[in-house]
Structures are given as C-alpha cells and as structure tokens.
C-alpha cells in the first residue's frame, strides 16, 4: 500500500545554476504554468526560470 508520503518521496527538485531558484516537482510552479506534480521531464524545453529567465538546460537535479 502506497501512502501519500511515499508518493511524494518520488518527486525530485531541480536548482537553477544561475540564480539558485528551485523547482520542486511536487509543488510545481502554478504561477508559471506548471501544475503541482509536473515532472521535470514534462516541463517544456522553452520554459524559462521565473527568476532569471534561463531555459531548463541551466538546471541541475538538487540532491541535497
């Protein structure tokens, strides 16, 4: 049986290497068109960091 906590543990976060803004898959970025639960692979390639406006190639998985 999977609990809600177990499901959220599968979500990852990604950090912008330019400005440090963090994208959390569980939270999404609703103000920027990404619903909660949107996986990084499903974020469009032309999406821009809401803080510094670089593309997702400037992000790295946050492993902290």
Automatic annotation (TrEMBL):
PANTHER family: RUBREDOXIN, RUBREDOXIN-1-RELATED. This is Rubredoxin. Belongs to the rubredoxin family. It comes from Pandoraea terrae. Keywords: Electron transport, Iron, Metal-binding, Transport. Pathway: Hydrocarbon metabolism; alkane degradation. Signal peptide: none annotated. One of its GO terms (biological process) is alkane catabolic process. One of its GO terms (molecular function) is electron transfer activity. The lineage of its organism: Bacteria, Pseudomonadati, Pseudomonadota, Betaproteobacteria, Burkholderiales. InterPro entries: Rubredoxin-like_dom, Rubredoxin_dom, Rubredoxin_ET. SUPFAM superfamilies: Rubredoxin-like (SSF57802). Involved in the hydrocarbon hydroxylating system, which transfers electrons from NADH to rubredoxin reductase and then through rubredoxin to alkane 1 monooxygenase. It comes from the Bacteria. Residues 11-62 form the Rubredoxin-like domain. Its cofactor is Fe(3+).
């Amino acid at each position: 049986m999977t609990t809600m906590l177990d499901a959220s543990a599968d979500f990852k976060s990604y950090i912008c290497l330019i400005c440090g803004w963090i994208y959390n898959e569980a939270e999404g970025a609703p103000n920027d068109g990404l619903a909660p639960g949107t996986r990084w692979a499903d974020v469009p390639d032309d999406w821009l960091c809401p803080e510094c406006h670089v593309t997702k190639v400037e992000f790295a998985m946050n492993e902290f």
